[in-house]
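Form 7-S
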Amino acid sequence: MTAPDPFAEVRAEFVAGLGRRIETMRTALAQLEQGFRAEDAEALYRAAHSLTGTAASFGADGLAHVTGDLEDLARGWLDRRTSVPEEWRAAVAALKELEATAREYRATVASGSSRSSAARLAVVGELTSLISAAVDMREIFRGAIEKVQRVLDFRRASVVLVDESATHYYIQMLYDKARGGFLPGEAVFPVDQGLTGEAIRTGRPIRVDGLPGTEGILLQEGRRVSAMIVPLHVGDRVIGALNFGHEQEGHYTEEDLDWAVVLGRQIETSLYYSTLLSTIAQQREALAREHATVQGQRNQLEALIDASDAAIMMVGRDRKIAYANAEMARLVGIPREAVLGASVETVHRFLGGSFVDATALASQETVLSLDASLRDRVELTFPRRAVYQRVVAPVRESGGSLLGHIVLYRDVTHEVEVERAKSEFVSVASHELRTPMTSVKTSLSLLLAGAAGPRDASARELLEIAVRNADRMIRLINDLLDLSRLEAGRMEFQLEPVPLADGVAAGVETVAAFAQEQGVTVATEPPAEPQVVLGVRDRLVQVIVNLVSNAIKFSPRGGRVTVRWWSENGFAVTEVADQGAGIPADQLQAVFEPFRQLDSSTTREHGGAGLGLAISQGIVDALGGKLWAESVLGAGSRFFVRLPLAPEQPARSAAT
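Output:
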């Protein structure tokens, strides 16, 4: 067994008190801005001196370095009995740096596998995509809660919205993990009461460690719970709040609240564009219904569209441009007056030359001819090279009749660069970690083998635990490297004919020891005719290993995992079936997301970071195939891999 950390309790107290110490220094600096007073400089010096020593004792070098600067400044002021403005500004900058360093330190101490920085960065990136991928407000809230539960542990989450009178708020979306997911919520509460009302009134996020539970938007009555409330803004108005509740008292940290605020900002951005697109559609319907107020409605629509930083145009059923903002005219490259009233074909003629992928415009032309929508990313070279989120969506009147389409291009170059930087960081960090971890494992293995002399039973047990955990860390590092290569398109594939039976046999052999340890039988059912796919042998084996080991992991002791394959319309289909508990229907797509497992107890019980299925799907997609899952609760799950069959090789004629 691993020994507990003897300083865990003291370290936790240190982390919990960081905010109080920083607030003491902030107050002292604010007083010193008004003029030098020895008692204020003394308070700053003592707080910085104490934090410097404590941080150094815990190995928090970043904290110790910044507070050391503040300590030196305060000591100089005390010696000279004065403070100069330049030094005061340096102290303010140092305090800001200290706040950021403290936030990072709290995250390092508090983070676990389900709250890792990589996982949280991934969720922020996915929430960013909601800005254009979802137009309906309820769809935004539902998608956000589903994604956020990967990085924030909660029993219950809700989104509340303020009514038109601004005197009450009501539950728009309610999720309860213990009650099976999303629930109907119809309760209404006064804004001038309760913590949620306070967050809405003040516009400031709130974290509470010991809140009496209720049957409202929190948890069970009679229990003290943890809660975080983040107000949601659209413009300068608070329209509601995002609530998280956990059954454990004191569960959330300041770092959790920081992340909740970041996630709330992403949701606010999505709401802005949701409101924008919804209002445009409503205004367009009003124009069609009320000809007497055309000019007034048109002015409102112009102001709304022109206020956006996205390029937007409305295309009528007659395929004429009903309206376009200045950003769209700049994107097309002709005056706005020339865009208005022009045909789609004319606009596309100017726009077409800007696409890096010449075929990307064809999909837009197709959607505008149908009652359909399109959401994707495209790269343009004019007026500058940039990546755009493209949305083409139908606009309808109240009766459901199609009025036309809205076309939106939003510059997401920065988001793409952030995603790329995240991927590069994961790749570089993984590369840097792999070599020392391999060295650590080698050294531990040599010690275990007796290289430094015999070891007693307790020492051998500790070494075996260390070797197993080193293996686990190396596997995680390799998975992160594979995932970053796939996301960046840097994983090379030299396709060749691969006998499927060989790949399955190699994969099953790799996990044979794990299956025996778990008490699970793995059986294969090959077809009568051999199947040869077009792929890469090692990557095919990697997919089989991931799927079969996953099936073993979630099978009961004494269970059976079956692997069978067959040909179907020019493809070979491989099925991996288990006898586990199954996967809920609304989670069948989510299991393929990085860092995703069905709940936090899955990680604790079975281990793993939730990367295997994401990597497997990336490999199968790159090989021109498809990976999907089917399941019935209580009756197990089945994962399918479809890969193209290799073309038949012509038989060589016998030598004459």
